[in-house]
Each structure stands twice: as C-alpha cells, then as structure tokens.
Amino acid sequence: MDLAAKLQAAGLRSTPKRLAIARLLFDGEDMHVAADAVARMAAQAGLRVSLATVYNTLNQFVAAGLLRRVNLDSERSYFDTNTASHQHIYVEDEQRLIDIPGGQIRVSGLPALPEGMEVRAVEVMVRVGAPKPTQG
C-alpha cells in the first residue's frame, strides 16, 4: 500500500512522522488502538515521537477520514482503522474492542429530529464483562 498516496488523497502532507505512524496503523489488519498504545508501538519501532505528536496525528487522520474515533467515555478513546459502518463490543475486563459487522444490529424507534436535521450515524456500544458474583 502506498501510504504517501493514501495520505495525499486524504488531503494530508506525507511528513516523515505521519508516514511512520501510518505504517504502524495501516498494515492491512484492522485494529483499535489508544493513543498511548500507538506511542508505545512507535517507541518499539525506534521512532522518536512525542505523545502530543501522536495525538495530533491521530486526530488529523480522523478529520481526514482515515481513522474513526470510538469514545468509551469522557476520558477514553480508541482509534479504529476500520472506517466502514459497524458497531462494537467492548470487553471491559480486557479493555478491548471487537467489531460487530455493519447490518447485524438494527435500530428502531429513533426520536423525531429537529426540523432540517438528518441522522448521520447511530453508534451502538455493547459492553460485556464477567458476571458479577451474587451475594448469598
């Protein structure tokens, strides 16, 4: 895959750090990664890049449509290399996301929208974990 061309097609200059981070993310396998995990991957690959640069690059990739941000709560986000329409299962005990292919979840009963508005997306997050012990 020509990552420089992919970045340019998305309207981004292919700087050395953007290209290096893109190589970590777009290796052909879909992945869900937090920014700190990308920073660790970069360090393991010998890339000297600050966490701020990683965040900036990931946010630029999201704005350009190369990544999708999945917000778990107000403090935690993952970046998803699969930008096609799909939903997620979040395994809380493992802090891991699993893709649910598009079309497997059907949503009905959406509220009436304000005049002039249209639905752009509906996001579903199925959170799972080990059963809680019962108190006896």
Commentary on this structure:
There is one protein chain. By secondary structure, the chain is an alpha+beta fold. It has two domains: 77 residues, Winged helix-like DNA-binding domain superfamily/Winged helix DNA-binding domain (Arc Repressor Mutant, subunit A, Orthogonal Bundle), CATH 1.10.10.10; 52 residues, no CATH class. Helix content is 29%, strand content 19%. It has four helices and six strands; from the N terminus they run ααβααβββββ. The strands form two sheets. Strands 1-3-2 form a three-stranded antiparallel sheet. A three-stranded mixed sheet has the order 5-4-6, with no helix packed on it. A hairpin with a 4-residue loop joins strand 4 and strand 5. Helix 3 crosses helix 4. The longest helix is centred in the middle third of the chain and has 13 residues. It is globular. 13% of the residues are buried.
Q: Count structural domains.
A: 2
Largest sheet: 3 strands, antiparallel
CATH top-level class of the largest domain: Mainly Alpha
- Shape, per Cα inertia axes: globular
Strand content: 15-25%
Helical percentage? 25-40%
Give the SSE layout.
Layout: H1 3-9, H2 16-25, E1 32-33, H3 35-44, H4 51-63, E2 68-71, E3 77-80, E4 86-91, E5 96-101, E6 125-128
Parallel strand pairs: 4-6
Antiparallel strand pairs: 1-3, 2-3, 4-5
Helix pairs in contact: 3-4
